[in-house]
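Contributing new complexes? Match this layout with glutamine.
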Amino acid sequence: MSKVQLASGPGPRGNPSRHPSSRGKHFLSDKVERFTESVIREMTRQAMLYGAVNLAQGFPDFSAPAEVKIAAQQAVAGDVNQYAITWGAKNLRNAIARQMGVWQGLTLDPEKEITVCCGSTEAMISTLLAVSNAGDEVIVFEPFYENYGPDAVLSGARPRFVKLRPPKDNGGEWTFDEKELRRAFDKHTKAIILNTPNNPTGKVFTRAELELIRDLCLEFDVLAITDEIYEHILYDGTEHISMAALDGMRERTVTINGMSKTYSVTGWRVGWAVAPEKITNAIRKVHDFLTVGAPAPLQEAGAAALGLSPEYYAKLAEGYRARRDHLMPALTAAGFKCFRPRGAYYVMTDISAFGFKDDVSFAKHLVRDIGVATVPGSSFYNDPRDGAQQVRFAFCKKPETLDEAARRLTRLRRH
Ligand code: GLN
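Output block (do not edit by hand):
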């Protein structure tokens, strides 16, 4: 399935058009040859094909908050239907600046430090395109959200992976080796991508871990690009800390976030990048020529969403805690070893009990024969062998959806 080929790859050379099977290949970009389509999105298509319960792609199957939907309807009815300012509607940028002040104690200039994009996905690739030069390296913790690989390839940067190691016991945490992280930093390092709360592991980076990463960024003059899209989805008393809020990091951090996960509107495609003025100017240029802007009426709804009361966020996290604690026992009973997430809405599992040669054949069996779609672990690793005994479940679903998945999973056989 999807893999980024990080070596220079086979690339079309010679005269491929003479070979019937590669006719037309010479029209394609070498970069595009170095990765395949997203496995996460492919698994949603497979779920639809086989009528499986979709616990693969991370999108809610329940309603977005009524106030947020009404705000979007009112914006459309009120004729907010032409382009917003390319770097984002003023109301939304003001709301983002205000809330980053409330949540992280950061003082932002919404005129100079925020770019609204088509989802945090676009915010990430616009950022990488805005900062990367040929030969630059970008450090990525692994397992990683699969977009970061192709994002790096498309922007010409070379990813360098640092392992997150799974907990040994049930209540433990994913950890990284300090020495391995230090070894990944050198004179070619441009940036480190950090996703906390983390997809797919559910790890929430602690202050001590963030400070360690901060110290390396300062020592090696490296930028931090942080994907904080699961900021409000936290369990077991964990705390989300923005890298930008740490001493010394304000000037070297791009903070990426969006509406998708916090307000259950993944299809709206409204996200943003927050960065110091010079970096923001570069991101804005890339963003403008890539997409011009995110949907204008949905940005107005975003301004309303960011004004929801603190109870909304508490309920959101509690709802996901209940879903986690609903799905995990069912997975354990079916034979999965679960790595308990502390944030975000995925659970990574170990599938060794089922005796399959790899995650892809297991995921195929699950979606076709059992009727549950998951994401094969290998799509979160550079070397597919590292994820060959893992699959990821998304639990951002209604209780009845989780019950149906649990019922189907009882048909799984262990070996
Ligand atoms: N973040 C979600 C996931 O990992 C999906 C995001 C997307 O498909 N754009 O499943």
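Reviewers usually confirm one structural detail per submission. For this one: The chain has twelve helices and 13 strands.
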